[in-house]
Amino acid sequence: MTTSSSGPLTGQVAIVTGGSRGIGRAISRGLAKEGCRVVVASRTESEAAVEQRFQRYASGTIHDTVADIRQDGGDAHSIRCDLTMDRDIQNLVRETVDRYGRIDILVSNAGIDCEAPVPELDLDLLDLCLATNVRAPLVLCKFVLPVMMGRGSGGSIFAVTSGAARGYRPGRVGYSMSKAALDRMFLNLAEEVRPHNIAVNVFSPGRIDTWMNRNGDWPGTAHIPMVQPEEVVPAAVWLAQQNAGTFTGHLVERAEFGRTWGPTTAAP
Ligand SMILES: NC(=O)c1ccc[n+]([C@@H]2O[C@H](COP(=O)([O-])OP(=O)(O)OC[C@H]3O[C@@H](n4cnc5c(N)ncnc54)[C@H](OP(=O)(O)O)[C@@H]3O)[C@@H](O)[C@H]2O)c1
Fold it and tell me: Which of 210, 194, 263 has its CA nearest to residue 235?
């Protein structure tokens, strides 16, 4: 992989949450390949801390992702961040600005499941799911937006949602609630920050072969083709390049990229 030195994202600064593995790792690497300076943020700093089940999918730390990017000639920096902790989010933003002086792109990707039929729902896990999938992305925007707005040159924010937000998935009522709330939050935020030329979109990746997917049963999704995390990269790179004047306030499907939305089409 070679890193671009002259594309539209060259020199831009991106924060990617959940960059230790899976979809977040692929997006981190994809943005870095386009010349972005990428801050990789999540909790895992050593292999011992991650789940031992599904080793291939669980493996990954924020430092591994950064090492991969640097090996490919890119610029990246890891910051440990538990998104359920407000002070970690504040530190993430502060350290990013201290290091790079700006934030152009925010990819709110980190998320967890809370799979169970409602009577069996673990309420602590439900709270953690809502804290991670709903509250954290909003708190993140609360601290990132002043930095983006301060420069006055726009920016791009997108969240990673799920088809579960828009349809029934057995055993995933709590998770679907969290993603539906995330969708509404970001679509409304798009209107709030439109005057600042900041794009806010919601990206639905489809069924991706990651630890989260291997860990869960996810009945009702077998008909959806499963693809590798790298498949999300072209759509994510395109979304990262948008501003409020080009593409904002949309909920888009990865599988539709280049068909109903993307470089050759205006909007879904
Ligand atoms: N895989 C799919 O088919 C699929 C489909 C639709 C939507 N999604 C969504 O895509 C996103 C990424 O999922 P994935 O499939 O790549 O799953 P994954 O491999 O389990 O990755 C999830 C990421 O979120 C991070 N994370 C979880 N809790 C965190 C916390 N409290 N603070 C900071 N980071 C946290 C994890 O990092 P640490 O453990 O290092 O903190 C990890 O990097 C999620 O929002 C998920 O809901 C996935």
Answer: 263
